[in-house]
Amino acid sequence: MGGAIYDKKEQMNYLQARFEMVMNMLDAIDPEEAGVEEIDRLITMLDEIENKCKQFRHDWSE
Predict the structure, then answer these.
(1) Would you say 59 and 11 are in contact if contact means Cβ atoms under 8 Å apart?
(2) Residue 44 structural domain
(3) Looking at residue 33, what DSSP letter applies?
């Protein structure tokens, strides 16, 4: 997903797109066959979103 984003609206669009990716992944996972890899990937994606939120929060406070 591209370079640095400084515009608040674009930052929110980025976060929404990332959350949609997580939701789509959750919808696609078969709970009976989900393995550690799928869970680890979801955790990684959520960690990445959290880091972006912290970065954007810092940008907005400036």
Answers:
(1) yes
(2) 8-61
(3) T
